[in-house]
Each structure stands twice: as structure tokens, then as C-alpha cells.
Amino acid sequence: MPKGTIDKYKATDGWKDFENIVEGVPAGINVIENAYNNNTTIYNLNGVRQFEPKKGINIVNGKKIVIK
User: Fold this and answer.
1) What is the pLDDT at residue 29?
2) Residue 29: phi, psi to the nearest 5?
3) Partners of 50 in beta bridges
4) 63 to each of 34, 43, 44, 45, 50, how far by Cα in Å?
5) Pairing assessment for the beta strands 63-67 and 49-50 based on DSSP bridges
6) What average pLDDT does the segment 17-42 reach?
């Protein structure tokens, strides 16, 4: 929860039933690492090798990966 809102959470139905409410703890993704390197093999669904993943379904190191 955002800092400065703990009292509101403790008074709100549903949230007030929790015993340990902690303020200011991040709950999102901070870093996304690039998993592709020189040893990564990427193919499209037609079996054509790609140099980088494209929008849609890719086969990366033998696993199907969807890129939006």
C-alpha cells in the first residue's frame, strides 16, 4: 500500500481483518532482464530463424513464447 494510507486500510472493511498490514512495501515489478543472448535460438511458427523475437508467437530455445 502507498505510504501514508495505513490508517485508511486499517479502518476499511475487508482490509481491517488483516493482522499484519505493512505500509510502503513495493508489490510490483522493478526490473525486467533481457533473457536473450548470443546462444538463444528464436524461430517463428514456420520454422524460420529470427534474430530477435517478433510480435506474436515465437519459439525461443524450444519453448513457445508470446510477444504482445
Assistant:
1) 67
2) -90, 125
3) 42
4) 16, 10, 11, 11, 14
5) unpaired
6) 73
pTM of the full structure: 0.45
| Terminal alpha carbon distance of the chain | 29
**Phi, psi at residue 22, to the nearest 5°?**
-115, 130
Using DSSP's 3-state secondary structure scheme, residue 23 falls into coil
Tell me the C-alpha to C-alpha distance, in Å, between residue 3 and each of 22, 26, 27, 28, 67: 9, 10, 13, 15, 34
Burial 45-57 (b: 16+ CB within 10 A, else e): eeeeeeeebeeee
Rounded to 5°, angle at Cα 21 from 15 and 24: 115
∠ Cα 26 65 29 (to 5°) = 5
